[in-house]
Amino acid sequence: MRNHKMITVLLSLALTAATAQAAKPAISCKIDGSNLIITYTGTLYLSEDAVIWSELDTASNPYRVTMGNKKLFFCAKEISDNKNFTIPLSDTVSLDIIWIEPGTFMMGSPEDELGRDPEKETLHEVTLTTGYWVGKYEVTQSQYEAVMGTNPSRNYGVGDDYPVYYVSWNDAMDFCDKLTETEKAAGRLPGGYEYTLPTEAQWEYACRAGTTTALNNGKNLSDRDQCPEMDEVGWYGYNSDRTSHPAGEKKPNDWDLYDMHGNVQEWCLDWGEDEYPTSPVVDPTGPEIGYYRVLRGGSRSNRAYACRSAYRTYFGPDYTANNLGFRVALAPVK
């Protein structure tokens, strides 16, 4: 009984601190044998020290906890429509990530899209059942250096706000793994999520932001190679002077993501495969094994057709080049 009283008091104290900031969330508890039953509105958070809190994003309601000698704090917080947030990487460097709601879209390209590769871009329905976050910008050189302690970029645009390049798929995954460890240790990692690369489906869904056109500004290409439609949204072979440019100088898509077209190509999580399915799929992750990893978005050295939302290419996971970079995702642990 002593343990029961202790945990109930800790719960009440956490509730008082939370509800002082927002009136809508509520939390209550009752004891059922050896279990504490928590009923709440809003989002449930758990802490072992009342300092570092973790969201219980998969918690049932009511939420059942087995009683014991371990201290646990619970609080309910208001559910915000704005789930975007900023990660501090150092005293002077941060990383913005944008929340992407789950949904259904048409992946690939229609048969009449200029520049289309009919063997790799079969139009098919994809449903993503779980929300995730992606970087607002391509990972910059200052962000990469803040996490990894080095900057491999050289000769093709160097500066804190330029996208990092000469980065292999393995390098990008090392960055994501280290960021996951750091954010978990800091108590900022949402429960059940990890930093990783977006799957190919997650990348295209985020890039399109509801559009079905070749580019995410709602426009199709007027020319396969050089066209004014690209100038609005991205740096490519005909406007970049063959060098990368600072992140965020072109128009973002409707979900506030920058440089999804051009600047540097972006690694995705999947192994590459040429043929898409022809029937609807749910949460695709690509083949289980392969030789090459997927790259998306085109780069500052590509022609317009290679910067389309549906364009796909592949390289080996150890390959680096002066136009290959990446964008982080914060996605459910697989």
Order of helices and strands: HEEEEEEEEEEEHHEHHEEEEEE
* Main sheet: strand order: 7-8-11-18-12
Q: How much helical structure, as a percent, in the residues?
A: 10-25%
Low-confidence stretches: 1-23
Strand composition percent: 15-25%
Report the CATH architecture of the largest domain. Answer: Alpha-Beta Complex
Q: Report the radius of gyration as a whole number of Å.
A: 23 Å
Main sheet attributes: strand count, strand direction, barrel closure: 5 strands, antiparallel
Would you state the CATH class of the largest domain?
A: Alpha Beta
CATH topology of the largest domain: paralog of FGE (formylglycine-generating enzyme)
Number of domains: 2
- Helix segment count? 5
Mean pLDDT: 89
Question: How many strand units?
Answer: 18
Description of the structure:
The protein has about 325 residues and is α+β, with helices and mostly antiparallel strands. The protein folds into two domains: about 80 residues, no CATH class; about 250 residues, paralog of FGE (formylglycine-generating enzyme) (Alpha-Beta Complex), CATH 3.90.1580. Helix content is about 15%, strand content about 25%. The longest helix has 18 residues.
